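Dear Dr. H.,

I hope your travels went smoothly. While you were away I took the liberty of generating a structure for the chain from your last submission, since the lab meeting agenda had it listed for discussion. I wanted you to have the full record in hand beforehand rather than looking at slides cold. The sequence, exactly as received, is reproduced here:
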Amino acid sequence: MVRRTRLNEDHCPVARSVDAIGDWWSLLIVRDAFDGSRRFGDFQRSLGVAKNILAARLRTLVDGGILAVVPASDGSAYNEYVLTPKGEDLFNVIVALRQWGEAHFFAPDEPHSEMVDRRHGRPLRTLEVHSADGRRLDPADTEVRKVVPGA
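The corresponding predicted structure, in token form, is as follows:
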């Protein structure tokens, strides 16, 4: 079995974030948690993933503080998975992935699920990155200042 490369001590926030999420199943689990899934069976039905893979991904998300295991809200003997504040902070990531997917992987008239403002029922505005003074930023307007180990 190939050993997974760990990035949890990398100097890059993107690398550490990817390390925490793990893989695409984990992002889809987080997506479903935002959509209201709470029980193992809910996730399994929605994703169609093998139970052993789902159990492993849920365990990783719980161990990483992204999901928490809580008693079932209906008082039954089951446990449920809920997003922690750390998990809820992935909302912008999920919205950004959704909007990127809408822009690049669907034909103009092709139907797809749509995220809307619950209060008004209208689609969300496209996410943008802004500077501290409010200017809209594009990739050419930014740079990454890398950490030099030992400096």
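Two observations you may find useful: DSSP finds six helices and four strands in the chain. Helices lie at 13-21, 24-34, 40-47, 51-63, 85-88, 91-104.

With kind regards,
E. W.
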